[in-house]
Design a protein that fits this description.
- The chain is an alpha+beta fold.
- It contains 20 helices and 22 strands.
- The model is unreliable at 1-24, 49-61 and 590-640 (pLDDT under 50).
- A hairpin with a 7-residue loop joins strand 19 and strand 20.
- It has an 8-stranded antiparallel sheet with strand order 11-12-13-14-21-18-17-16. It has a 5-stranded antiparallel sheet with strand order 3-4-5-6-7, with no helix packed on it. The protein has a 4-stranded antiparallel sheet with strand order 8-15-20-19.
Length: 640
């Protein structure tokens, strides 16, 4: 009888589900189900992470002294202490006015600010300005965290924040404990024990990628530096080794494909190696391999001015941190020009360097900061950057993140104002969506007449328009000429549209480079800060000079320019272009005026370039006139 009453209910529920599902195609149903499961898993892990059971232990603290203090290799900021004395607490590009309150007693300015606050990496600034008053200040801030900040379950006990806090407290233990009273000393030691026990269970709940490594590195350092934790050390070392093997690729790249991650990771792993050696222990082979492989990869991804190429989440380069990392590479080794595992290529001839992204997007679990810049390139000449991608904006500018990730913000081809990658609803984290596609990216590199030729392609536009994007770049033997060809080829059979699609090849110029209209409508002259002239010319496309935005400036976004080649595509098409260094004897007349008079404003330069824009076809001109709401750059579209 019971079965007969439940059967209609089950049948009714199934019918309701079938009616609801009838309006969705198979892909949407699958994505919706996976997205629901991801969200449910995230909620469960978040609950587990907040649970006090994870950090509960019946055993009393078993250490009242530290065996050693690991070094902190990050460069301190001497102005931080002065700002703190004035009542300002600046972190993650945001400044909080304390007005006599503890930073842990006020509402966070932003999520990034709160994460850095609870990570205590800022203790290095106080330690660098070591004095009696800064020691008192550091102890007061630690006491505030023990009494107030530790109650914050949203930020304080995130596994990656706990790992960073353990690293910071241990590295600067002399600052906070040397002149401390016994009661405070005991409270700090109890907290260190509690945090280590909590992290040994909660590290798996950290977001995928680098945050998981931060949690494990903090745990290993705690086991190394605190007494009577040798048994825990054996376990945490194995966990860290396995995670390093999973995340560090064979050529030294990271699975998240963000070059900046490598800088942070090396700065975290070097203290682990040093502490292991100081205790007479052999560092794991995975840790040594990671350190040996990542530094050459960082050299591989550096332009001539010392900055990292702005691929997949790189913003302003912390040159001090990068220089610190590179000094630890005692045996500089060069990677092959094509680092296939990481998906990056380096063409270098003369004083010219060209870096290209020739890889697929990272896995969805770590792709929240990845950019749709497949086959994009950056170029520097000597110590001056020439072409650069827009780069990732600062954390305090969340509205600019999505446009910065779009294909149109990179030096590559963009079809119908759509990005070559698609945002995925699966794996959403903190409002950030990972990307997927292209599914297939190929690249090959050969020497040709003393130069280097790279041939690459991706299928990011095949699903929408059946077109493959292929790119060929040839850097001449002297480094004074870069010839390019961007083509759209049919992925299968003969393809012809009943309408035209706009095609644009973007060349975003570094803000320090001046762009002038050339002597004819198909050329543009580029003048570097040192006065070196380059000429960009194109065939079968209308060339225009347009506004751009450089997000990776040290002091924030800077207005910049871009040269855009625009054409119409009704099927297969090909755009050829070349960049050549102009001899001083052939320098354009505008350069003479530039050397003796102030540079005209961006508006004046764009007005002068308008004669080139008049030559644009109606379709292409309409596309170039679309702007973001803030008017800062051409509109970038994402395909959901």
């Amino acid at each position: 009888m019971q079965n007969s009453t439940q059967e209609p209910e089950a049948s009714s529920a199934a019918s309701a589900w079938l009616r609801l599902a009838a309006g969705f195609d198979a892909r949407s149903k699958l994505e919706g189900t996976l997205h629901f499961l991801d969200r449910a898993r995230a909620h469960v892990l978040a609950y587990a992470r907040r649970s006090e059971l994870l950090s509960w232990s019946p055993a009393p603290p078993d250490a009242d002294e530290l065996l050693m203090a690991p070094p902190n290799l990050r460069v301190p900021d001497p102005s931080f202490v002065d700002e703190l004395k004035c009542g300002n607490f600046g972190l993650a590009g945001e400044i909080a006015e304390l007005r006599g309150r503890s930073p842990f007693a006020r509402a966070p300015v932003s999520a990034e600010w709160a994460r850095e606050l609870h990570g205590f990496s800022w203790l290095r600034h106080l330690d660098a300005a070591r004095a009696e008053d800064t020691e008192r200040m550091a102890r007061r801030l630690l006491r505030d965290w023990l009494q107030t900040g530790s109650r914050d379950r949203l930020y304080a006990w995130a596994p990656e924040a706990t790992g960073r806090r353990l690293m910071s407290w241990l590295a600067h233990s002399e600052l906070v404990l040397d002149a401390a009273d016994p009661k405070f000393h005991a409270a700090v030691m109890r907290s260190l024990q509690r945090q280590a026990r909590y992290l040994s269970a909660a590290w798996q709940n950290a977001p995928e990628g680098y945050p998981k490594l931060v949690g494990l590195i903090g745990l290993v350092l705690a086991d190394l530096c605190m007494q009577n934790r040798d048994r825990q050390l054996r376990r945490s070392q194995k966990l860290l080794s396995a995670e390093i093997e999973r995340q560090i690729l064979s050529d030294g790249g990271h699975i998240g494909r963000n070059p900046q991650t490598l800088v942070d990771l090396v700065l975290d792993l070097l203290p682990v190696r040093q502490c292991l050696l100081a205790r007479g222990l052999t560092p794991p082979s995975s840790l040594l391999r990671a350190l040996e492989a990542t530094v050459p990869m960082l050299r591989h991804l550096r332009l001539g001015d010392g900055s990292l190429a702005r691929f997949n989440g790189v913003g302003p380069t912390d040159r001090d941190a990068l220089a610190t990392v590179l000094t630890y590479d005692k045996r500089p080794t060069a990677l092959p020009a094509l680092a296939a595992a990481s998906g990056y290529a380096r063409l270098e001839r003369g004083d010219s360097i060209v870096l290209l992204d020739v890889g697929q997007p990272p896995p969805l679990s770590v792709g929240h900061g990845a950019h749709a810049g497949c086959l994009s390139f950056e170029m520097s000449v000597g110590g001056e950057p020439l072409f650069v991608n827009n780069g990732a904006p600062a954390s305090r500018q969340p509205a600019r993140r999505a446009p910065a990730r779009a294909t149109a913000s990179h030096n590559t081809l963009c079809l119908s104002e759509q990005s070559s990658s698609k945002l995925s609803r699966r794996g959403e984290r903190g409002g950030a969506l990972p990307i997927e596609q292209p599914d297939r990216v190929s690249a090959s590199l050969v020497e040709e007449a003393g130069g280097l030729r790279l041939e690459a392609s991706h299928d990011g536009y095949v699903g929408r328009w059946g077109l493959l994007h292929t790119r060929s770049l040839l850097l001449g033997a002297e480094g004074t000429r870069l010839a390019g060809r961007d083509a759209l080829r049919s992925a299968k059979g003969v393809l012809r549209f009943a309408w035209d699609l706009p095609v644009a090849v973007h060349f975003h110029v570094h803000p320090d480079v001046e762009v002038w209209p050339g002597r004819d409508a198909h050329t543009a002259d580029l003048v570097t800060k040192s006065g070196v002239h380059w000429r960009l010319s194109a065939a079968a496309a209308a060339l225009s000079i347009e506004e751009s935005l450089h997000n990776a400036g040290l002091l924030g976004p800077r207005p910049a320019q871009q040269v855009v080649l625009r054409a119409a595509c009704h099927g297969e098409t090909e755009l050829s272009w070349q960049l050549e260094r102009v001899p001083a004897s052939q320098a354009p007349n505008e350069s003479v005026a530039q050397e003796t008079a102030p540079a005209p404003s961006l508006g004046i330069r764009l007005a002068r370039a308008n004669r080139n824009a008049q030559a644009l076809p109606t379709q292409a001109r309409g596309a170039s006139d679309s702007r973001d709401p803030d008017g800062a750059a051409p509109r970038r579209s994402w395909q959901d």
